[in-house]
Design a protein that fits this description.
The protein is α+β, with helices and mostly antiparallel strands. The chain folds into 3 domains: about 180 residues, no CATH class; about 70 residues, no CATH class; about 120 residues, no CATH class. It is about 45% helix and about 15% strand. It has a 7-stranded mixed sheet with strand order 1-6-5-4-3-2-7. A 5-stranded antiparallel sheet has the order 8-9-10-11-12, with helices on both faces. The longest helix is centred in the C-terminal third of the chain and has 25 residues. The protein starts with a strand and ends with a helix.
């Protein structure tokens, strides 16, 4: 990227007969902060705020830190006949007009979340190419943490963003502005969004889809299922997690089986937990040589009982050699024990402790002994201080990066103390786990 001195930029302004603009720009810098300081306090969530100003045929986007309202950067965009012809930026705004600083051609972007200050936009866009813009309404409807320079620079996105904002599809408009959904440059909004028809557009408005929800809904439609199944299956269309079809079940039949278990009060967890538990059941059942072509195995009347019985049966056939290897691994983790005023982390001492935990918590942690032996999992127990011997939460760590894989309460469900437990776990990770990472690595974890 080429660098331009201040003198070069002054010459550029003179060539464009815009010396008057530079004088206004200096005056603005000296006076803008006191005028807008009180109004910025409303946007306390943001770390950086961008304030848009206009001078003749220039737009100026000034970036402020909200903790001290210090201007930390600027973008200047010049338009001619509604088209961008030049753009410069200067980071390190403090020495903005010093002769030894440099301007850069291009645009400045931060990786930190930024908010667009929308209160002045309607007045700003009067008698401009954005005269009928709806972007200020978009900003007032949702938190606009956006790459909004796209709005001023990319005409392809502007048309779609404006159309979506006018019909009330605010989340999708925001995500397109953020670059989370690619569009086709086309006058027809339906074709631009790559959706089947206008009825689909009504669905976007009705459900207020963002980019992610729109993508997974399009994938859901490929299954040709009624809309009522979408809320159960949408969590499995993420790019990193594929929805499997189990032997004996179509996607629809599997959801119906889950609803049947819920209706008869044989299962209490959400669909995501049911799906994961069923995968565990298949994994355990194959080790026990279950015949999953038989409906009594692949579709048991009481899934929870069948799941727990399979796990317990697998536990019972574990040999002494496995227990010995697990016990050896568990001894390495004893440095991770921790407690504060309300909760404590208890590291299991022997394999039987993990099996007992699974029975008390009604979960399948007892089947994780093989993973512990193979150094693929670390199991921890979270207890209350006043009930040290009573199971409360079961937690799994990944030994590779020491991050939490899962942390569940009784019956794999959250409790009323979910938030407090998460805070305690974060504290434990910071104060104990991070300090012992090197020690655990040296011991061959």
């Amino acid at each position: 990227m080429r660098k331009y001195t201040l003198n070069y930029y002054l010459e550029f302004l003179e060539e464009q007969n815009s010396k008057k603009f530079l004088n206004k720009l200096k005056k603005y810098i000296n006076n803008v902060i006191p005028k807008i300081e009180e109004r910025y306090k409303k946007l306390s969530k943001a770390f950086l705020i961008d304030y848009v100003s206009r001078y003749e045929d220039f737009y100026m986007i000034t970036t402020y830190r909200t903790d001290n309202l210090l201007p930390v950067g600027i973008n200047i965009i010049r338009y001619k006949n509604g088209k961008k012809i030049e753009q410069f930026y200067r980071q390190d705004f403090i020495n903005y007009f010093s002769a030894d600083t440099y301007w850069l051609r291009g645009k400045m972007n931060y990786f930190t979340k930024r908010y667009l200050y929308c209160d002045n936009l309607k007045e700003l866009f009067k008698e401009s190419e954005f005269n009928y813009s709806e972007v200020w309404n978009l900003g007032k409807k949702i938190d606009l943490k956006i790459r909004h320079l796209l709005y001023f620079c990319e005409t392809k996105e502007i048309k779609v963003i404006e159309s979506l904002t006018k019909i009330g599809c605010y989340k999708l408009a925001r995500d397109i502005m953020n670059g989370k959904y690619s569009i086709i440059d086309c006058k027809d909004l339906v074709k631009s969004l790559r959706i089947p028809d206008k009825n689909f557009l009504k669905k976007i408005k009705q459900e207020d889809f963002g980019a992610y929800s729109l993508i997974i809904y399009k994938r859901f439609l490929d299954l040709s299922l009624p809309d009522k199944y979408f809320k159960y299956l949408k969590g499995f269309f993420k790019s990193y997690y594929n929805l499997e079809r189990f032997d004996g079940f179509t996607h629809k039949a599997f959801v119906d089986y889950y609803l049947e278990q819920i209706k008869q009060k044989l299962y209490k967890g959400c669909f995501c937990y049911f799906y994961q538990d069923y995968r565990d059941y298949i994994f355990v059942g194959k080790k026990l040589n279950y015949n999953f072509k038989d409906s009594k195995f692949y579709r048991p009347f009481n899934f929870k009982v069948a799941h727990d019985n399979a796990v317990n049966k697998l536990d019972s056939v574990k040999n002494k050699e496995l227990y010995s290897k697990v016990n050896k691994e568990l001894r390495k983790y004893q440095c991770l024990n921790f407690e504060d005023k309300k909760y404590l982390v208890v590291m299991p001492i022997k394999a039987e402790d993990i099996i007992t935990e699974g029975q008390q918590m009604m979960n399948c942690v007892g089947s994780y002994l093989g993973r512990i032996k193979d150094k693929k999992s670390i199991i921890c127990f979270i207890r209350k201080i006043e009930e040290r011997d009573k199971s409360f939460y079961t937690l799994e760590l990944n030994p590779k990066d020491f991050k939490v894989v899962q942390c569940r309460g009784f019956h794999n469900n959250p409790t009323s103390e979910e938030y407090q437990v998460k805070k305690f776990v974060s504290k434990w990770l910071k104060e104990i786990v991070e300090k012992n990472v090197m020690k655990l690595s040296r011991e061959g974890l």
